[in-house]
Amino acid sequence: MTAIKRRVFVLGGLATAGALALPTNARAATPYPFKLAVASGEPDSSSVVLWTRLAPTPLNADGQGGMPNADVAVEWQVSTTDTFATLTASGTVTARNADAHSVHVVAGGLAADADYFYRFRAQGHISAVGRTRTAPVTGTFGRTLKMAFASCAHYESGYFTAYRRIADDRPDLILHLGDYLYEDATTTGSVREHVGAEIVSLADYRRRYAQYKSDPDLQAAHAVAPWLVVPDDHEVENNYANMVRADSSPALTTAQWTARRTAAYRAYYENMPLRPAAAPTGNSIPLYRRVRWGQLATFHMLDTRQFRDDQACGDGWKVCAAADTASRTLTGAAQEAWLLDGLAQHYGTWDILGQQVFFARQYDASGAASMDAWDGYRASRSRIQQGWRDRSVRNPLVLTGDVHAAWANDLKADYANPNSATIGTELVCTSIASGGNGSATTTIPNAATNPHLKFYSNRRGYVLTTITPAEVTADFRSIPVVTEHGAAVSTLRSFVIQDGVPGLELLDGLAGGRSAPPSRRGRLRLG
Amino acid sequence: MGGAHHRPDVAVSASGDATIVWESGDDIGLTRLAKVSGAVLLTPRLANVTTAGQQRRPAIAANFNGDLVVAWESSGVWARSFTTTATGRHAEVQVSTTTGAAAPTVGLDDQAYAVVGWTVSGVDGWLRGLNPDGTFTGRLGAQTLTNTTTGRQDQFAVAVSPWGEVPVAYTDDNDGNLFDQILLGLGATNSA
Q: In this predicted model, what pLDDT tens digit does every residue of B33-48 receive, in sequence order?
């Protein structure tokens, strides 16, 4: 038993008249610094990144979270038990004032394909405990991988109940595909309100991250498993493309815009459990990367914002011949070559592209499509699709966020020909909160012109995948309400992708869904 | 539910719905009512598993997520943690370690770690932390947490912040002159 030391015990007497009498033996206790909780990410077979950021008053306008202008020592511990009876690894790291007191510890020397717990200690306080794990070693499949992916968590649109339900599902790994936060100003009357005006400065971005990271549901999702993160547009500004802004609000000079983008990426790194190799340099941040999960899977995490050409035909939904221009790119040439080279290696059974914007073709009846998505960069998409075919990639699986709706799509060799080969699969998670409660509709938009689009839902939620050497199962997890906290989650639809057989099979159909015993579950090949 | 109903306590989570406990005969009743309509969201049930003897004086706390902890008197102070749907995570465990423990008070952090406080024989304030599974490892050990144990400290009350900070307040008359004071203690956290 640990007895509380009397010296940390601050006493105040309440006088009989009700006024607060100043205590004679009071000492100002150091305020609790772990209000942004903990996170982990980027596991390999022997190490994982542990993250925290000290901020006793997270919403301070200077973005420093109420910390003194000084560097602070932070101890970290890793154990196989959540009581930390024995330590597997431990150390001390400096939380620098210049980094808004964020830390990125690469905890090494860990066993492969193993579960761990971690925590931090600083200024006499101890953090919440996080759970994390390592990947299997090269050449081994490891255990079945339960992986959830999510995107688009607009704080003002609703509670992050979907993050809580991800935590309840206890996945091994979580992918976040962008729009982790939003840059817009307070909108009075929202379910919850952003603090401050549209974020522009480094202090603004730091404070906005602190506001989001104060959310208990987000904290629970971070604490349950390691994350692999990539940003989309709102981590900087809506629909920006490389160095081109979508609009001029707020008005910024070119230098001010560059400074804003740089500040946004710096704050992104500070607040995400990324490896030090992803720290920004100059005005950019090196984010596209591969994370290998033994023989089972390879995660190719893409950056479709920093290197893209400007949206064609002025952005929006357009009938746009310019979108076919052969030189247009969403990834940039270097990232495209890096991706295709990685796909050629056949590192694992499943080649999973973790990326941001809608990949499959989706034209409306007039032939218009989203210029912000891959439809605005058709040659870029064709090169990558043909690239994986040329390299005999066995199981390409594209994961997507951005659109605030759930979709499941077959990827086609020729989208104009429904009878052409299905050459891959796309799973699109809906949003955590963006768009509010949505609606119950599952009618597939533009289905007549896009028969390869197989499923749609306009509810909030996430996708929970179960990955084995034989198949990937995808459960579309759905939350009916986010404008009030605490709604239950249910599986709206489940699909299976079999090893070596690109495309979706409907798992639930009429056979009783996932709750039915396996012998009664139907599998329906979607033609 | 039969018997006389007394001594309610109430807690609320971010959902806004109210979870209520009360003395129901010799047991502890538990229910949840909707924030706007008062509709019953959880049918009344018992918080205690053991129904022998008398269960008295319940206290409840909820966190943001709606996890719950309930404590009560029954020849000592007992506690039980619940999920957001009021499913017990464990059978009740005895929290107090001495005789004379009464008048429980509870708090719960966002990781569902609880602190239970109580008063012993009307003269000492105690508390103890517990894990969501009803074990005590890693949490505040059972101890008095008052500025002095001389004379009388009673009506001990605890709360827990989302991060496990544990303020306490109590009535103190350590010099026995019958002029009570309310004291507030800060600075403890629910970690061993």
A: 999 899 999 999 999 9
Average pLDDT over residues A15-26: 32
> Which chain B residue lies closest to A481 (C-alpha atoms)?
B15
Q: Any chain B CB within 8 A of the CB of A194?
A: no
Residue B75 tokens, joined: 């020849």
Mean pLDDT of all residues in B59-80: 98
Domain ranges within chain B, ordered by starting residue: 5-189
Is any Cβ of chain B less than 8 angstroms from the Cβ of A204? no
**pLDDT at position A508:** 64
User: SS3 of A258, please?
Assistant: helix
> Is the separation of the CB atoms in B124 and B168 below 8 Å?
no
Give every CB contact of residue A254 below 8 A, 6+ residues apart in sequence.
Answer: none
Tell me the residue length of chain B. 192
- Domain-wise residue ranges, chain A: 146-178+287-527
CA distance A262 to A264: 5
Confidence at B192, pLDDT banded by 50, 70, 90: confident
Closest CA to A229 of A281, A169, A170, A270: A270
Q: How far is CA A36 from the centre of its chain?
A: 17
Judged by CB atoms closer than 8 Å, whether chains meet at A32 and B163 is answered as yes
Quickly state the pLDDT bin for A527 (edges 50, 70, 90): low
A21 pLDDT higher than 60: no
Q: Which of A466, A455, A491, A507 is nearest to A350 (CA)?
A: A466
Strands A453-457 and A406-412, bridge-based pairing: antiparallel
| Distance from C-alpha of B165 to C-alpha of B107, rounded to nearest angstrom | 10
A146-178+287-527: CATH topology is Purple Acid Phosphatase; chain A, domain 2 (3.60.21)
Nearest to A1 among B16, B141, B179 (CB): B141
Q: With contact defined as beta carbons under 8 Å apart, do B126 and B120 qualify?
A: yes
Q: Which fold has domain B5-189?
A: Tachylectin-2; Chain A (2.115.10)
DSSP A429-467: --BSSTTTT--S--PPTTTTT-TTEEEEE-SEEEEEEEE
Q: Three-state secondary structure along A415-434?
A: CCCCCCCEEEEEEECCECCC
* Residue of A128, A225, A217, A132 whose CA lies nearest to B131: A128
The whole-angstrom distance between B145's CA and the closest CA on chain A is 8
Q: Which of A44, A40, A38 is nearest to A289 (CA)?
A: A44
Q: Is the dihedral of CA B53, B58, B61, B66 positive or negative?
A: positive
DSSP, collapsed to helix, strand or coil, labels residue A329 as coil
pLDDT per residue over A128-138, tens digit each? 999 999 999 99
Check: CB of residue A428 under 8 Å from CB of residue A152. no
